[in-house]
Write the structure tokens for this entry.
Amino acid sequence: MAQSGAWSHKRERSADEVLIRQLYNEHGGALLAYATRLMGDRVQGEEILRETLISAWRHPEALTNDKGSVRGWLLKIAHNLAVDRHRDRAARPADVAGTVGSIPAPRDRAAPGADTMVALSTVVLSAMEELSPEHRDVLTAVYVKGHTVDQAAASLGVPPSTVTSRCYHALRRMRDVIAESRPATSRPAAKEMAG
């Protein structure tokens, strides 16, 4: 009887590992990119990704497709975790907020000036003009107005999974447009990228 219980426990653990690996393989890249953007730091983005996968492991019932988009649910969890982290950081005293949970920026690296910010804004606005109206609307709702996926879905009259999907595709398109618009001299040579 003890062997049967051990076998069952081992089998459950194996199924859990398969679930987490499958989620990571299907959604890990998108989740990491999203979390890194939200946190402004890859290390913190990785922590958000890990916590998101742990949440999925704790609530496998939410991963069935009949309850909506799995990726949308995972992105919402990542978003909520990031918001919680930002709130925690804002609530800390100033002398602690800069040292706990973050790596200080190098002192020799200057913050971008106003001219750089204007140039970046111009590039982003130009790239947004290349998007379809649906993609532009969803990015405006989520990134400019700061709506959650559910709020954006309600204001646009589409399901939350559509908001998530449109954000994903719109951001990919913007990345491609920006990459295409960069002068050839500012792109790294293929040889440098390989080495």
Confidence is low (pLDDT under 50) at residues 94-110, 185-195. The chain has two domains: 9-101, 123-185. The two ends are 58 Å apart (CA to CA).
